[in-house]
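Re: export button greyed out
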Amino acid sequence: MLGNDVVDLRDPESDPESFRPRFDERVFAEEERREIAHDPRPLARRWAHWAAKEAAYKLARRLDPGFVFSPRTLVARFDPLSEAATRGPGVVERRGRLELPRTVGPEISTLELRSTESAACVHVVALPGGFDWGAVDVGVARIDPAREDAGRVARALAITDVARSLGVAAERLAIAKVGRVPVVELDGERTSLVLSLSHHGAWVAFACAPGPARTGRVRGEAAAERTPGVASSGGWRPVRDGPRKDAAGGRRAAPDWRTSTGGTA
Amino acid sequence: MDQSEVMERVVKILTPWVKDEAALANVSMETNILEDLKVNSARLVDVVIAFEDDFDIEIADEDVDQVNTVGDAVNLISSKL
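Workaround output, generated via the alternate export path:
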């Protein structure tokens, strides 16, 4: 189980001044407001906290449909940035934790957070505590929101990267929606992969990891939308719980900061 | 205040943050705020604060969680007036 969220820091709507004065008090706990104010990168820190809340909510809601988004109760606690946090030119990674206000699913209450931040965007992934980050596929890409459908590009990005990691042809993968939850299908069968998609402004992102074993056709369920994969080559490897190593592509725990080549599906 | 007046004020508050002009032109009670109007989720919290200020009401997080469409917002606000 996982959740992710991306925030475009250069979108005019990310300017804190564009929000009502009561927004911060309603959304951020007092300790978060204090940390944001004292951070050397206050804008990124601010939206890392927001994205952490969104990612945690997405994770919790999958396990408990009655879970309410009450942002001030979802308190993200990040470690101080250090030299070790550098992930590339101008890119840093914050690590942190978030205690859910109540246990969801199979005794999940503590989440681990990774926030990857550049001057342009913040991307946060939330996983249950103790989950192997090496088993997580993550992708982040820039789009032209005036020309491209962000949701479509996010799904295409996920299909391409997940197919490469699994070593299967992308055209064999599809993303269907059951309610508002994206599910990954292989040859029309639902896989056990857990997928989270997000987009904001000029950025799209996804995170994908093995989930509890669950396969079967989506047929008969409310699959409102289905995005097929694109052509590539490779053979099928079964999806297993736990870390996966794949010669075709391997797993990436760090986002791939790149420009999209456009919608591929 | 009748429902059409609440609707008018709700749409006016939402308008600056709508990304899909065509959806706004055809806005109805069934229009989804996030998916159709493409208002982003952080802005939705700000919009709820604007509803509170404009209508002089309080809206709990549990209520916000139930708001998906413009009609949901109109009905919620109307129930608190």
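Chain B has five helices and no strands. The button fix ships in the next patch.
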